[in-house]
Design goal:
Layout (H helix, E strand, L loop, with lengths): L3 H8 L9 H11 L6 E11 L6 E9 L2 E8 L2 E8 L3 E10 L7 E10 L4 E5 L6 H14 L1
Antiparallel strand pairs: 1-2, 2-3, 3-4, 5-6, 6-7
Length: 143
């Protein structure tokens, strides 16, 4: 497991660099004060907003105690945090891909939280090998 400092170093460089890192890393440190060690993090998407206005990025974090979804855009950083014990169901969706070493590839997972919250985690469309591995690991560790 990684500390928030380890993960912040990962998020500072390369393909996995988190959008608006200087600002978002400060917010993440606050968010993770009571979350425990980070087991895995995964940058799900990065979409361009209206041309020239920046991006919208979604990242997921799984810690010892929490599941955290962070959405970053030029004007805000929004985080939704749930205790891991609030997860009541994980639905996985696989796609058959003939010709690959594995015929079925995990493409998404629905996380159902106590109450009515449901979140979909999607396979990265243009992910690096690290992002692909972190996606699979995140879904596996969720349950």
């Amino acid at each position: 497991m990684k500390t928030i400092d380890d993960v912040i170093k990962e998020m500072a460089t390369g393909r996995e660099k988190l959008y608006m890192f200087d600002c978002s890393s400060i917010a993440l440190q606050d968010i993770f004060l009571s979350a425990g060690r980070i087991e895995v993090w995964y940058k799900e998407s990065r979409e361009q907003l209206v041309e020239g206005s920046g991006f919208r990025e979604v990242a997921w974090f799984l810690t010892e105690k929490k599941v955290v979804r962070v959405e970053i855009d030029p004007s805000s950083i929004n985080a939704t945090t749930h205790n891991r014990g609030e997860i009541v169901r994980i639905d996985r969706r696989y796609k058959n891909v003939p010709g690959l070493n594995a015929d079925a590839v995990l493409v998404s997972a629905l996380i159902r939280i106590k109450g009515e919250d449901t979140y979909e985690i999607k396979y990265p469309q243009h992910g690096s090998p690290t992002q692909l591995e972190n996606f699979r690991k995140l879904v596996a560790l969720l349950g």
